[in-house]
Amino acid sequence: LNPDNTVRFKPKEELKQIIADAGIPLPLQPPKRVISSCGSGVTACVLLAAFNIVGEDTNQTFLYDGSWAQWGSHSDTPIVKD
Length: 82
Fold this sequence. Notes:
The protein has about 80 residues and is mainly α. It is about 35% helix and about 5% strand. It has 3 helices and 2 strands, in the order H-E-H-E-H. Strands 1-2 form a two-stranded parallel ribbon. The protein starts with 11 loop residues before the first helix and ends in an 11-residue tail after the last helix.
């Protein structure tokens, strides 16, 4: 989001650079996909909106809306720590 106006996204070119700096090559092409997740699903939606703003194929972007709140609440789900 734009720090000067938190109800607006940063400019398209700046979003592209942020995505590239995160190591995500654009354009997204099969079989490359982005699966977005966060603590509750809200922040993950912002990332997917950014991909839409920069004109990426949203068929290659996915939201795990349960996110960490769901995954981490089950004792039998794998958790990997680096």
